[in-house]
Amino acid sequence: MPMSAPRILLVDDEENIRFTLREVLRREDPTYQIDEAGDGAEALEKVRSAPYSLVLMDMRMPRMDGMAAFRAMRAIRPDLIVVFITAHGTQRTAMEALQAGAYDYFTKPFDLTEVRVVVRRAVEKVNLLQQLEDMRRTQAQRYSFDRLIGQSAAMQEIFGLIERVLDNDVTVLITGESGTGKELIATAIHNHSLRRSQSLVKVNTVAIPEALLESEMFGHERGSFTGAVSQKIGKVEAADNGTLFLDEIGDMSPPLQAKLLRVLQEREIERVGSNKPISVDIRVIAATNCDLAKMVEEGEFREDLYYRLNVLPIHVPPLRKRRDDIPVLIDHFIGQYNPRLRRTISSVSDAALQKLLNYPWPGNIRELENTVQRAMLMASGTSIEVEHLPPSVRGDQPVVTQNLAPPGGDGAEAFGELDLASLLDTEDFSQSLADRLQLLGDHLEKYLIRRALQKTSGHRQETASLLGISRKSLHNKMVRYGLFSEERDRAANGD
Ligand SMILES: Nc1ncnc2c1ncn2[C@@H]1O[C@H](COP(=O)(O)OP(=O)(O)OP(=O)(O)O)[C@@H](O)[C@H]1O
Ligand SMILES: [Mg+2]
To answer: By CB neighbour count within 10 A (0-12 exposed, 13-18 middle, 19+ buried), where does 366 fall?
Structure first.
């Protein structure tokens, strides 16, 4: 977004102070437009007559002092960012100013690094406010935010929620089925937040082997365990001053949940092999496709951690509940893949669009994206036709929904999701016997757990007993097969 350079007003009765500040700012960014005023009354006059976005102002000045000028300025321009310059030993006055809504302060005699940091932060804030203002103005015709596309009311609401968390560090919990764009939302928040110049560190604890988890998350000191040949900075520490994205939070093991809670409460970590706490300044965004509230009820997820994370919830509905996003997403993906796939697709036939609109998209936007990509590869001309769509979308093949099957299921239900043709393929043996057995076994297991859950109305202990497995093992398998999200969907659909 192009942005005009902020207009800055320097207010101090000592000319040499104004001169020093002007020099610091000019070296920081020569495009700043800088004006000066010698006291509060003159500053107020200037604020009345020109659109300043940032004021750096001394406290003690003749005619009208800093506080009085500040109050008067805020009455005319409530959005004005004001930073105070205070003499050493007058921190109390500085605190009062902060309480009254000043943005920040620095002390004189100047510590130039401090001045630079404070001014840089203030300018970032100014830019952010301007961006938000621009966005608000274009809200009516906005179909995208960062790389997120969507015109449905649900997505518009999500764009609004994202905006509300950009200029603060509120913890965000993003929930939604797989492929709905949770990670993309987390990225959008970070990219537009005040922390955007720092790192966004993504952690998916399920993907990290148990034995390495602690050191991956919190780092370790050299020699803290066999193999720790050098010091290592963990993910949480790497996110210092930036954003930590905790993916698949519902699948976190209880010990890790406890450690994470500590980090969120204390805002500090200890590397493995050290007991020296290191404080971290992080913004946390978590995501899950599980129903955490239900998991809390079931004792599968810590309640205290849930409340720490669920400060601002963003729920992303499945694509089938916001079908008006389908056409804009298709256009978006075609535009994105045309150059990459060396295609010149410019349209989708009415019949094909109808099929795409009717399909329930259990894999959500990820599945839509793959489908569009595949159709573009199949198409030889400039248009996507029905024949370029996969059989499931065309409707030639029973649609696999993630919903629980009706009672009295049969083989078709149990193995409907399985690609039986490739499992039974005796022409092409590239898929190994072990892989085939694994696939078959997984499907059988998922089917049996689902049916057992149904039989006990979801009662965990009873289900585990029925299946002859431990409760813990049932939990792990439910996570693995996405059965928690199925339950959630079922509840949401009222079946
Ligand atoms: N609103 C959207 N606009 C454009 N692309 C999207 C949108 N939502 C999702 N996508 C795309 O769909 C794919 C899946 O998105 P993402 O990885 O963010 O989903 P997720 O909810 O994190 O899924 P999972 O739970 O499986 O991790 C990505 O390629 C992403 O770019
Ligand atoms: Mg994800």
So the answer is: middle
- Residue with the smallest CA separation from ligand 1 atom 30 is 181
Residue 232 CB contacts under 8 Å (≥ 6 apart), including other chains: 215, 219, 220, 271
CATH topology of domain 322-394: Helicase, Ruva Protein; domain 3 (1.10.8)
User: Ligand 1 atom 24: the closest Cα is on which residue?
Assistant: 178
40 neighbors 13 (Cβ within 8 angstroms): no
pTM: 0.61
Q: Is 176 in the pocket of ligand 1 (CB under 6 A)?
A: yes
What residue's CA is closest to ligand 1, atom 15?
181
Q: Do 4 and 134 form a contact (C-beta atoms < 8 A)?
A: no
Residue-wise pLDDT for 91-138, tens only, equals 788 888 888 889 999 988 888 898 999 999 999 888 888 877 776 666
Which tokens sit at 168? 């603060």
Residues of the chain with CATH 3.40.50.2300: 7-135
CA of 178 to the centre of ligand 1 (A): 8
Are 447 and 402 in contact, with CB atoms under 8 Å apart? no
Ligand 1: atom nearest CA of 149 is 3
| Burial of 115 from C-beta contacts in 10 A (0-12 / 13-18 / 19+) | buried
**Which atom of ligand 1 is the closest one to the Cα of 180?**
21
Give the CATH number of domain 411-493: 1.10.10
What's the token pair of residue 139? 């809200």
CATH 3.40.50.300 fits 142-315, yes or no: yes
Q: How far is the CA of 102 from the centre of ligand 1 (A)?
A: 39
Q: What is the pLDDT of residues 458-477, one digit of tens each?
A: 888 889 989 988 888 888 88
**Cα 220 to ligand 1 centre (Å):** 33
Atom of ligand 1 nearest to the CA of 184: 18
Q: Give the nearest ligand 1 atom to 369 CA.
A: 12
The rounded distance, in Å, linking the Cα atoms of 257 and 293 is 15
Q: How far is CA 268 from CA 225, 244, 282, 328, in A?
A: 22, 13, 10, 43
Ligand 1 contacts CB of residue 369 (under 6 A): yes
DSSP three-state, residue 399: coil
Residue 149's φ and ψ, nearest 5 degrees, are -115, 145
